[in-house]
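pipeline/complex-builder :: batch 7 item 3
reading input block
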Amino acid sequence: MPKVTEEHRLARRQQIVAAARRCVIEQGFHKTTMAEVIRESGLSAGAVYGYFKSKEEIVAAIADDALSAVDELFQKVLATEAPLTPVAALEMALNHVVTVAERPDGDVTRVAIQAWAEALRNPAIMATAQGKYHQLRDNFEAVARRAQADGTVDPDADPRYIGQVLFGFLPGFILQRLILGDVTPETYLAGLKALFRS
Amino acid sequence: MPKVTEEHRLARRQQIVAAARRCVIEQGFHKTTMAEVIRESGLSAGAVYGYFKSKEEIVAAIADDALSAVDELFQKVLATEAPLTPVAALEMALNHVVTVAERPDGDVTRVAIQAWAEALRNPAIMATAQGKYHQLRDNFEAVARRAQADGTVDPDADPRYIGQVLFGFLPGFILQRLILGDVTPETYLAGLKALFRS
């Protein structure tokens, strides 16, 4: 038996997830089959089944991957020392959405929209979506608290509710970008600045 | 042959659409079959096929129905004589979303989320979504113009971009309501009021 390093295993797993993502973007969760993922990955059936025992396991992995796409953003956003306004945080978030959407291995925002639909009937994907989106919203709530401490947002407002609204911008942006095709971070920010206090 | 009135035809069609909606909420677009829609409708197969020749036609009809759920709102919103702020328009829109979601014949917002996913791969549903959402966004743009005329929003801002942002609130609200379950028009409006100028 060859000695397989952890790094090699992770790269292989990523290769399979990327292949599955391409299949799902093309055909949706329901029509994608294990045979297609195997063919798209360029690996043997045995290799793929060594990582994922069933289509359900692959669907869970790519949904997790798509719903995690914004996770990495907030380390950067919350690490800034300067006053952090809601508009500045949204600017970083919207630019990040476009960056991950335009990566060459497939637009994860397309997979995220399918994961939303799937979550409504698949308890495992619902649990993933709830965990990821609670965490993302907590980060927007932290932005609200920072802005309240900086004096750019009313300190008497409930930061949880401000977090709901800030988080709620992202699905609307993602959906308009894919369905109407004419929104960019720049147009959205122009609209936001006209509406927001700060 | 019995004489079938137009009213009777419309009521029958609505009965089939409502049955299909219940099936799709339960199982999604892909797993729903004509046989299940027929059973759920309580009509004969011949009666159902008299209205919809295929599952594709039924899917198109319930997607259209779900994506139209907010249409009726704007006649009321734009008819108001009083100054119309973006917050007031969003308050009416969010309350309307909850009203249509809680109708006894099935939560159309669940069908709308599935229609978003389906639109990415089904050109007919994409065309419906584009038409409906352009129209809805035009209505939010009209709200922005009203607010600019009333002096509550910066008259130099582009109302199209304000319309993008206002329209973009609805998907985020719908998604959080179904996945995280803790948003209401009241919590959202509290967050909005803390962030918005007016």
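note: The domain at 66-195 of chain A is CATH 1.10.357.10 (Tetracycline Repressor; domain 2).
queue -> next item
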